[in-house]
Design a protein that fits this description.
By secondary structure, this protein is α/β, with parallel strands linked by helices. It has 18 helices and 27 strands. The longest helix is centred in the first third of the chain and has 33 residues.
Length: about 725
């Protein structure tokens, strides 16, 4: 047989185009009339915020490559310039579909539900117009800062992502034929509510208008000595990909603070405006921002659809929303014992948001107060705005405990937030580390060192998601609480490595990137390949956010070609192709898009019947395997292994929220004719509530029993 060249670009999909495909799957949820109306608003809002970040980081990075003359192709054989060309086509199509969904589907449905969103201020009735004008005078006018451009005033700074109203104005006393148009602009203030309630002309109807429409209607009041020729809304997106030279940065915190300020001055990479904007104003903006036509987006509706998340939050429309999920208690902790006593009785698996995140917070809180706790060490990547974990760590330090916290300052778009927390923790007496040179610390680990009668014992929490009590209600993640001595030794080694650059020669249980993790995954995949070649059963199930590492994909291809059955659950980017004859015929890929963001990473290997299971913080991406500190940990307790296998099994059975990757690169929902409908997220919600009714009583009764058994397909 001829050797297969697994580096062939034809075997891979482009990362950026695959991501756009993911956002299309989110958009498909906004279009699905089987989903409650206000949930559809939320999905459309998410597509808009996703697209903003995609442009600020991914598109910006590609533009930097083009400017630098970088021509090396990606794994799919595309140069940065070629990627930008295809991205432009696909994102314009996506934006058109966003506004079609908004205008043709959601707006009429909202009207039918009793909520009228006034699209243009020209459509206001006389009574509404009077109310809006008074609202402008009393609430909006004092906040605005109108700016004009002339020989004495240069073009003003337009802030990244801010919504603005641009106008062309002329002097009222200008002579005919000699009047010169001047540019003026005003930023729509983000400190004011964007959605404004106004009187309704119809009983039982609630009517709202957007703040920018109120300002546009009254813009003449900002330039009294001028005539406003035209006024239209616009928004720009700037390059927000921080360029930090860590080698020359004496103080990483100060360097990041300096770079954050530059985000407002970054290159303009996207310009959005209303499709009815005056051509002269369009031309002026394109010239001032030095932007090409392919980077402009003329939209038919409100700019920045993320306002729909605020619309979702309006009271009084609960019947059009999914009932709020209340996380269940963890059965293993429902017995009145301290969290440390419960962990000593056996490892505890957490499955968020189906199970509450409270045990993770309580783990740190109890450690902060416990007089027998000597030290707490934790990594923080993203935390909530009013984090109880931060408060507990500060209290622990004030109580005289040794507290070491790694706060990752380079966590994208959370840099400012993390700088604030880092300073607060230092003030409380914690030892704070600002990440490692050249690497992001993305691992999720907490170590508590406790003095007990038998000696020093180490308690560890390891997770797949951030220590963020807010997102833990929306993201699906897994965690493990353990006092396994070997994992405790590894946890100590991790923190020694982070604080003192002391790399251990080997690890007991954990696999850590960037040095050891890639080889561990490649070894596990190759072992399944070898077992298949021997005629033994071989199976891989892997769940993650993204898959785009060529070496990992090539290993999966080789395993598939050898006969290994591989099922992948990949929420977002997937550069692997299914159905390639002789290469990937044994691989399936599904993406689950539901009310919760699928965020957990779980890896299952049949291993000749011993069934090895790992969870952790890393996706199969080059950045996770080579450029970040990541941790993958094993699940070895037999009851917990069965529980994790059950989680994977239910997700593989999902035929409502799962989109299946086709051989042509498209995703389609499964044809479930003749099959029992199964929504994995709804299933886990019900199961967690049922299991919480029967708390575990003793170690002898620790047997995992699913709440219900879906029928076999």
């Amino acid at each position: 047989m001829e050797a297969i060249d697994y580096t062939n670009p034809e075997y891979y999909r482009n990362r950026e185009l695959s991501w756009i495909g993911f956002n299309e799957r989110v958009l498909s949820e906004a279009k699905d009339k089987q989903i409650p109306l206000f949930e559809r608003l939320k999905f459309l809002s998410i597509t808009a915020s996703n697209l903003d970040e995609f442009f600020m980081i991914r598109v910006a990075s590609l533009k930097d490559m083009v400017h630098a003359g970088y021509t090396k192709p990606d794994i799919a054989g595309m140069t940065a310039k070629e990627q930008l060309e295809k991205i432009s086509v696909k994102t314009h199509e996506l934006v058109q579909e966003q506004y079609r969904t908004y205008n043709r589907s959601l707006l009429p449905a909202l009207q039918g539900a009793g909520l009228c969103v006034v699209e243009r201020h020209e459509k206001l009735t006389k009574k509404q117009a009077e109310y809006v004008d008074q609202y402008f005078e009393e609430n909006v006018y004092p906040v605005l800062t109108p700016m004009a451009m002339d020989s004495a005033r240069p073009f003003p700074l337009i802030r990244n992502k801010s919504l603005n109203i641009g106008a062309l104005i002329r002097k009222k006393d200008a002579k005919k034929g000699k009047e010169e148009l001047e540019f003026a602009t005003v930023q729509v203030p983000s400190v004011l509510p964007r959605i404004v309630d106004i009187p309704s002309e119809e009983e039982g109807m609630r009517t709202v208008i957007l703040l920018e429409e109120i300002i546009e209607r009254n813009i003449g009041k900002l330039y009294l000595s001028n005539e406003v020729v035209c006024a239209h809304q616009f928004r720009i997106m700037r390059n927000a990909d921080l360029s930090i030279d860590e080698d020359d940065a004496a103080d990483l915190l100060k360097e990041i603070q300096k770079q954050l300020k530059k985000r407002q001055w970054g290159e303009v990479i996207r310009l959005e405006f209303n499709e009815k904007m005056d051509k002269r104003l369009q031309k002026f903006l394109k010239t001032e921002f030095d932007i090409r036509d392919e980077d402009t987006f003329a939209v038919n509706g409100p700019i920045d659809l993320t306002f729909l998340m605020k619309l979702y939050g309006i009271d009084g429309f609960e019947k059009y929303k999914v009932p709020k999920h209340v996380p269940a208690q963890v059965p293993a902790l429902m017995n009145g014992r301290s969290i440390f006593e419960n962990i000593r009785r056996g490892d505890i698996l957490l499955h968020h948001p189906y199970m509450t995140f409270d045990p993770v917070v309580d783990f740190v809180r109890q450690a902060a107060k416990d007089p027998d706790v000597l030290a707490i060490k934790q990594t923080l990547y993203r935390v909530s705005g009013n984090s109880p974990i931060i408060a507990a760590l500060a209290q622990a330090a004030e109580n005289g405990k040794q507290v070491c916290v790694l706060v990752e300052l380079k966590a994208r778009f959370d840099e400012e937030n993390n700088i604030v927390w880092a300073k607060m923790l230092e003030k409380a007496g914690c030892h704070v580390i600002y990440g490692l040179l050249g690497l992001k610390t993305h691992s999720k680990i907490t170590l508590v060192v406790r003095k007990e009668d038998s000696g020093i014992r180490r308690y560890v929490h390891l997770g797949t998601g951030n220590y963020n009590d807010s997102t833990a209600k929306m993201y699906t993640d897994c965690g493990l609480l353990t006092c396994d001595e070997r994992i405790g030794q590894d946890a100590t080694a991790v923190f020694n490595m982070l604080s003192g650059y002391s790399e251990p020669d080997s690890w007991n249980k954990l696999a850590v990137a960037p040095i050891w993790l890639r080889d561990r995954f490649l070894h596990l995949i190759s072992m399944e390949e070898e077992n298949a070649k021997k005629g033994n059963k071989a199976r891989i199930i892997a769940k993650m956010n993204s898959l785009c590492d060529r070496e990992i994909i090539a290993a999966l291809y080789k395993a598939s070609a050898a006969g290994v059955k591989i099922d992948l659950i990949v929420r977002g980017i997937c550069c692997l192709k299914t159905g390639i004859p002789g290469i990937s015929e044994n691989i399936t890929v599904r993406s689950i898009v539901g009310n919760f963001l699928e965020h957990s990473r779980i890896f299952y290997f049949y291993a000749n019947g011993s069934e090895e299971i790992y969870m952790g913080s890393a996706d199969w991406m080059p950045r996770n395997l080579d450029k970040r500190v990541e941790i993958i940990f094993p699940v070895e307790d037999e009851v917990l292994k069965e529980e994790v296998i059950h989680i994977l099994d239910i997700q593989l059975r999902d035929n409502i929220k799962a989109h299946i990757l086709q051989t042509d690169g498209s995703y389609k929902k499964e044809d479930r004719r003749g099959k029992e409908a199964l929504n994995s997220q709804d299933y886990f919600c019900r199961e967690a509530q049922e299991r919480a009714k029967v708390p575990e009583e003793s170690e002898e009764t620790r047997v995992f029993i699913p709440a219900e058994h879906p029928q076999d397909e």
